Amino acid sequence: MAPGLVRVALRRTLRDVKYVEAVRPRHARGAVREVYRQVERDFGILAPPVALHSAAPEVLAAAWVLLRESLVAGGSTTRAEREVVASAVSAANSCPYCVEVHGMALGALGDAGTAAAIGAGEPATIADPRTRALAAWSRGAGPLPPAVPAGAAAELAAVAVAFHYLNRVVSVFLGPSPLPGNVPPSAREKAKAVLGFFLKPGKPPVAGLSLPLLPPSATDGPGWAVPGGTADDAFARVGAAFEAAGERVLSPRVRDLVRREVKAWDGRPPGLSRAWVSDALTELPASERPAGRFALLVAKAAYQVDAGAVAAVRREWTDDRDLVEAASWAAFTAANELGGRLPVRP
């Protein structure tokens, strides 16, 4: 399968985005068109986890800045190290789509064994001790590997925050696999091998070139970032964009509830029961409970978001933009909290 055909096939998977309609490349205009152009130039493909945000152009730009400036752009860490973090965080968040994508990328970079161990839920079996320690750190289960300088630690923390965010929106809006649904089971391994080769990164693009997509922020960047660095600036802009999105669509009571629930949360998936959501919602007026339920599920158990939870908020949020903005705010609120807990010193 030629790279051009892979690109076309992945563009067609935009039709599989759930609950909202992603803007097709041929219909993209203005800010959406500029983000799409950068994504295909720097990431190689129009990644559905980015394009699913296209109903909300500012949030689309924030999602791309988040991904580009953490995983894709050049820095002091290798792309393979970043892919280990992306894969380990995705596995911890039970996001099979992201585990598959970044496992393929790791395999293309020559570390299929690590990808297989993470994908199988057995990161302790990773052969290389440093890589094993990095995977454990990504899940909040250990310190950074020895001799990691502050700049490298910040880059790895940026990847972890980005994938805590992306895992959540992917779990809501996409299916379990990046491969088109019409790929027969007998051809899936070959298709994955081709896609993995296509995902193999080349020379990393220059850091910071996506920042003009978002206005500068008056607030400081996250505590793990190097002050004045690209990630510091990028995550400050991204955080401001997501916060503005939440303010447009979610009430102050809902946002306060989600922040408190996430702050008190130990980060472990709550399981299959949703009793915890109903208990948390009792303080909200009845009119705000559907929005509160949706935002809490996205933040703490995105895999529990189903058609019923979406239908309940669609009575108020008739525009795709509203749903995307609410999901993005809740996902980033959780990601920012969990990423801030990672130890960024060896």
TrEMBL record:
Q: Which domain of life is it from?
A: Bacteria
Give UniProt keywords alphabetically: Oxidoreductase, Peroxidase
Pfam families, A to Z = CMD
Domain (Carboxymuconolactone decarboxylase-like): residue spans on this chain:
60-136
Task: Spell out the InterPro entries in the cross-references.
Answer: AhpD-like, AhpD_core, CMD-like
Task: Kindly list the GO molecular function terms attached to this UniProt entry.
Answer: peroxiredoxin activity
**Coiled coil feature spans:** none
PANTHER family named in the record: CARBOXYMUCONOLACTONE DECARBOXYLASE-LIKE DOMAIN-CONTAINING PROTEIN, SI:CH211-175M2.5
Query: Which NCBIfam families has this protein been placed in?
Result: ahpD_dom
> In its UniProt entry, what is this protein called?
Alkylhydroperoxidase
